Amino acid sequence: MQCPLLYRFRVIDRLPEKPSEAATRGTLVHAVLERLFDDPAVERTAPKARAMIPGQWDRLLETKPELTELFSGDAEGERLTRWLGEAEQLVERWFSLEDPTRLEPAERELFVETELESGLRLRGVIDRIDVAPTGEVRIVDYKTGKAPRPEYAEGALFQMKFYALVIWRLKNLVPRRLQLVYLGSGDVLTYDPVEADLERVERKLLALWEAIREATESGEWRPRPTKLCGWCDHRAVCPEFGGTPPVYPLSVRPAESAEDVQGRMGPVRAEAGQPVAVEGP
User: Fold this and answer.
1) In Å, how far are 108, 163, 191 from 181, measured between CA atoms?
2) What is the per-residue pLDDT across 214-240, written as a single tens digit (0 to 9) for each?
3) H or E element: which one contains 252?
4) Which residues contact 223 (CB under 8 A, 6 or more apart)?
């Protein structure tokens, strides 16, 4: 949805990408907010959460040693100290948005997967699921950036509706609420979905997958320039910046002729004045 060519670089070519400070900070904050619920409710305090950050950072480095590249050349540790301080601010802001002493999540960092009737398989990882005593489900996702402007809220909610669709198809239960917690700006965006919403998301996903399938077979992955291009690791091989993509690693289907695209004509039997349904190509 963001850029078809970027999808190709990441999923098909699997070009390497450098870790970023922002994305890694998000991973660190998520880890702290997940692990905080291991403690009894009365111990879930802001000072306790802040104190967890250095240990969780060390744990991240153990699993992903390449993250040390983020602060190469920082001999005095000033950049790292400032970066860890920014993570502390995000964690502390969360306490002004939610009260963890009153929450007992049913699931944290939950991997979910389901297969639609079409055969399309969906999977993802949900930050947190809360279940009320009445059985109502709330899906919560933490964002370490700022909340989008209202005109862009629908795009932000797409991920949440995706998760809601997976839960609906898995459990035959429509989540009561979808909640995005923006730690960067201190905003909380909520949405209460209905079945019609999730049916629309399913149709959109099927259309997206069809577009992906066709692009995979044809090799036509077009760039979609936006302001986000400045953050892309693949500008050197992107035509929009004068680059040349690597050789496409998959076999390519020959393009259809114009006649095939337009359709077919042949003898049709019908009563005068009656409409005729014709199967498309």
Assistant:
1) 15, 15, 12
2) 999 999 999 999 998 998 999 999 999
3) none
4) 3, 4, 5, 6, 238, 239, 240
**Beta bridge partners of residue 178, listed in sequence order:** 139, 191
Residue position matching structure tokens 């991920």: 159
Which residue is it, tokens 């997976």?
166
Residue 47 scores a pLDDT above 60: yes
Beta bridge partners of 138: 130, 177
Q: What is the pLDDT of residues 175-194, one digit of tens each?
A: 999 999 999 999 999 999 99
Token pair for residue 106? Answer: 């049913």
Model pTM? 0.85
| HSE (side-chain half, CA atoms, 13 Å) at 153 | 13
The sign of the torsion formed by the CA atoms of 52, 86, 143, 9 equals negative
